[in-house]
Amino acid sequence: MTGNNIAISIQNVKKSFGALKAVNGVNLEILKGEYVAMLGPNGAGKTTLMEMVEGIQKQDEGEILINGKTWKDHEDELHKLLGISLQETHFFDKLKVKETVKLFASFYAIGDERCSEILDLVNLQEKAEAFVINLSGGQRQRLALGIALINNPEIILLDEPTTGLDPTARREIWDILFKLKKEKNITMILTTHYMEEADYLCDRIVILDKGSILAQGTLDELLSKNESSEIIEFSIEGDNRSIQLPDGNGKKQLTYDAKTEKWQLLVDDIIAYLPLFLDEMKKQTKKIKTLECRKMTLDDLFIAMTGRRLNE
Ligand SMILES: Nc1ncnc2c1ncn2[C@@H]1O[C@H](COP(=O)(O)OP(=O)(O)OP(=O)(O)O)[C@@H](O)[C@H]1O
Ligand SMILES: [Mg+2]
What atom of ligand 1 comes closest to residue 208's alpha carbon? Predict the structure, then answer.
């Protein structure tokens, strides 16, 4: 790997707010053309890290290089390279969609032709004359994405571009991002709470928790890192809170989730352990309320690693 292939290099970056270590020593290199998803629970430090890459916040320690350059010495150059959409985008509600795009285009001295291209790209041509206040959530997010793309950026940084959208609106954003990857070989970091978004769109998933990278890789890599990759999830009638299960046949960690009132048992192989489980239930005269057997998901992996849920 040569330095020329690296779009973003984050080196031992730290940022505190008072005593709170929001980002606590992150090292991450993102290759040109790579799509990286940053997943993590609320308060993990995703936005803080993104904003440091965007030059909006300054790190206390460490270095961030974009195409080998720091914000300190190359501000104008980096602004031209990057496209940004913040976690919360505030538009002028009383401007029309077209006027909004034009306003942002004027910051870069970009002409009308590109504005029209952008409306095509994010499929908002029909809404060009609509007031921003009257856009749906999905249309608003597409407008934010269009604005992030206005300067034809090499690198885009999108903070939760699909949060709160229904599956159809989310898919529309995915299609645009997919097209960009294919046609423009753009580099992207996207933060999300949706595992399927990270899996579908991105080459690599980075899991951030309490300001540090907990794990990274493709979804398959992340899931295969944990030996136990299958789950028996169940609840029982009556006293659901105490249960004992025999060891052996690949039995691993057993945890109780008070929120869902379900037990989660990690096993090497469902087929090997399930008969033992069912026999035991019979022996203990327990009645099964729910029983689900499935492959481990990223959410399960996160629970196994931290005892907490990804989406809390
Ligand atoms: N300006 C600030 N002043 C004080 N604390 C802050 C500030 N910005 C962020 N924090 C704190 O830093 C931590 C990380 O916040 P951040 O917004 O980066 O998390 P996040 O991963 O983006 O969360 P979410 O998924 O909710 O968007 C949180 O505990 C947050 O309260
Ligand atoms: Mg955030």
Answer: 21
Domains within the chain, CATH numbers bracketed: 3-223 (3.40.50.300), 227-295 (3.30.70)
Place of tokens 């285009």: 105
Beta pairing class for 155-159 and 82-85: parallel
Ligand 1 interacting residues, C-beta cut-off 6 A? 17, 20, 22, 40, 42-48, 87
Q: Give the mean model confidence (pLDDT) for residues 149-170.
A: 93
| Number of Cβ atoms within 10 Å of the Cβ of 300 | 23
Distance, CA 38 to ligand 1 centroid (Å)? 14
Cβ–Cβ under 8 Å, residues 153 and 186? yes
83 pLDDT more than 90: yes
pLDDT tens-place string over residues 236-246 = 998 878 888 99
13, 16, 39, 47: residue to mutate for ligand 1 pocket, most atoms within 8 A of CB: 47
